Amino acid sequence: MGKRLRVLDVGMGRGVQALRLARAGHQVTGVEQDAASISAAREAFAGEPEGIRERMRIIEGQAGDTGVHFLPGSFDVVLCHGVLMDDVEEPDALLAGVARMLAPGGMLSLLVRNGDAAAMRAGLSGDWAGALAAFCAPTTSYGLKRLTSTLAGIGAPLHTWYGVRVFTDTAADDAVLPDDLDAVLAVEDRAGRTDPYRGVAALLHLCGVRG
Predict the structure, then answer these.
(1) Any bridge partners for residue 7, and if so which?
(2) Residue 203 and which of 31, 142, 166, 171 are 20 to 30 A apart at CA?
(3) How far apart are CA 115 and CA 142, in angstroms?
């Protein structure tokens, strides 16, 4: 087994990623403020073997409060997935606080809506009015350039990045999985690593490394 990492999952949600990492042998702390999500996560964790449950911890709190709960440099990996999908007050300050939790050489993993491709979903769905509105609407969303600058400014410069949901963003949440799911995933994986496709993905996944 590889090195066991100290992982902080900010905005843990229902704990899907946290549980996967705990099963892989890592020590995982989740921070979440939504009571329903916390309850679902605890229910999922309760069904795991004791050795996995011992590697899990849940802190009830907001994403911006990491400095209240932890000392700087306490984690090898910090996940911040989906936290910046909606408007967040002082997002750069939130990211700076999250980055302070990283030990030297630690990785910050971000998943955000792609502010450079705001019109894509509406356009691909044939919603031309919505696409035009997306072009004109002021946005606080992150794009690659802004994120690259932000990560450099908080001491965790960009190491690598990917596009997520390049071709499948218009699929309904309750859509039946296709028979050729493996092929779909292979195409999405390839597109998410390849220019120019990754630049118009619905989401951006960026990894910054603490100097």
Answers:
(1) 28, 77
(2) 31
(3) 5
Closest CA to 121 of 136, 132, 133, 131: 131
CB 145 within 8 A of CB 206: no
What does the longest C-alpha to C-alpha distance in the chain come to?
53
For 67, the token pair is 């400095």
Weakly modelled stretches of the chain, pLDDT under 70: 1-2, 86-87, 139-140
Q: What is the pLDDT of residues 124-160, one digit of tens each?
A: 999 999 999 998 877 667 899 999 999 999 999 999 9
- As a whole number of angstroms, the distance between CA 99 and CA 154 comes to 7
Q: What is the pTM of this model?
A: 0.91
Structure tokens at 21: 């990492």
**Torsion of the alpha carbons at 11, 14, 16 and 19, rounded to the nearest 10:** 90
Pull the structure tokens for residue 200: 């118009």
